[in-house]
Write a structure and sequence with these properties.
Blueprint lengths: L1 H9 L8 H9 L4 E3 L2 E3 L17 H11 L14 E5 L2 E4 L4 E4 L2 H4 L8 H13 L10 H11 L8 E5 L2 H16 L4 E4 L8 H6 L14 E4 L13 H15 L6 E5 L1 E2 L5 E2 L4 H11 L3 E5 L24 E4 L10 E5 L1 H4 L15 H16 L2 H22 L3 E7 L2 E9 L4 E2 L1 H14 L1 E2 L1 E3 L5 E4 L7 H16 L2
Parallel strand pairs: 5-18, 7-8, 7-9, 9-12, 12-13
Antiparallel strand pairs: 1-2, 3-4, 4-5, 6-14, 10-11, 13-14, 15-16, 16-17, 16-20, 19-20
Helix pairs in contact: 5-12, 6-12, 9-10, 13-15, 14-15
Amino acid sequence: MLGFIARRLFWGRKSFCTQRCFSQLAQKKVSLQEDGVVIPKMPPFDYSPPAYTGPTADEILAKRKNYLSPSILHFYKTPLNLVDGKMQYLFDENGRRYLDGFGGIATVSCGHCHPEVVEAIVNQTKRLQHSTVLYLNHVIADFAEALASKLPGNLKVVFFTNSGTEANELAMLIAKLYTGNHDIISVRNSYHGNAAGTMGATAQSIWKFNVIQSGIHHAVNPDPYRGIFGSDGEKYAKDVQEIIDFGTSGSVAAFISEAIQGVGGIVEMAPGYLPAVYESIRKAGGLCIADEVQAGFGRTGNHFWGFEDQGVVPDIVTMAKGIGNGIPLGAVVTTPEIAEALTRRSYFNTFGGNPVCTAAGLAVLRVIEKAKLQENAFVVGSYLKERLTALQDKYELIGDVRGRGFMLGVELVTDRQLKKPAKAEILHVMDQMKEMGVLIGKGGFYGNVFRITPPLCFTKEDADFLVSAMDLSMSKM
């Protein structure tokens, strides 16, 4: 009887309550069960945000339409006005709490408004917000040293930027200068940024404008789920060698790739791919660039950097997002020899490495180590993946569950054999999960993959809540 009442509360067209009533059940942690599906309850959390007195969601939306670029989109039929955040939770204008399963697109690493990161930012802001790297300041040097200590081999020279796009642009420029070659090879379905060079390296039409992008080659994606060679990484790698042989002069500047494609739908590379590709690229005189913008800083759990899972050491590593826990910060790390290429002319970044951002970055590194967040990403991420895989056994709608740590993807399909993307279904499930208090992202070329990239402080209770919300949403499809 209790299950029937809950169903009518949330789903019934003629019910005496709206979806918000069900949301309140979740907020009040009422434990119900219906047809074997656990109705999710919000895990307890000892924080209440201060009252919000700013403009409403409708007022903000009106201003966005009038004054912001029309290219800026928003999630959900009814967009959220988020005004407060604490660790793995976000709060809307009414004080309602949401579990953040997206982490600001894999950006919030330590947790929203982590006290130690906030303290570092505030203390530095009180003393010096900005000068220029033309003067000395210990914060940028301290952070560069700490960052270099987390990388293998001779990767120890750091150049700070403001974003992942800037970092990837600079990495490709360095590769061209150092090698004297022009051609760049990237992987289909990848995303590396939205500036001139990075848009060329990006390999999804939705992110590419009709502008000239020369010297870029896109290799077959080593996708174990949709790829033509399954999980045979070495077969995919042969395509890179053929690009070198047939599409270039035989010499290339660089190969750039994500360890796990983020925007592309949390696609892991087939095992053995990077070692074979790196060998081909280096024989052709090129450098190997690892784009760690989303997978870096312990997010994958088993390693601090995503590329480590394939047992390779890149020549250049780019990073952003989780590096600053939400502060605009990026970096390029390379060897002393390769870094010398930038000294041939003057190269400068006004805001890259400013005191406030680097103070935040140093605090983030310390928190990740102190709180053992990489270990938590492995333990809780593995648990979450197991729970999601169990849902795959339950619902034909789920075609694939993949990823590592807190970089997980759930691909929805209307036909498992044909792998037909479930584009409308994912929007429905996503919206219903939001009503239950769970926020997750979506991506993939077809827009049919849930991107689950929460703050690294996510708990098993949070994982259970997320999966229960997805379970209940899918049970009503």
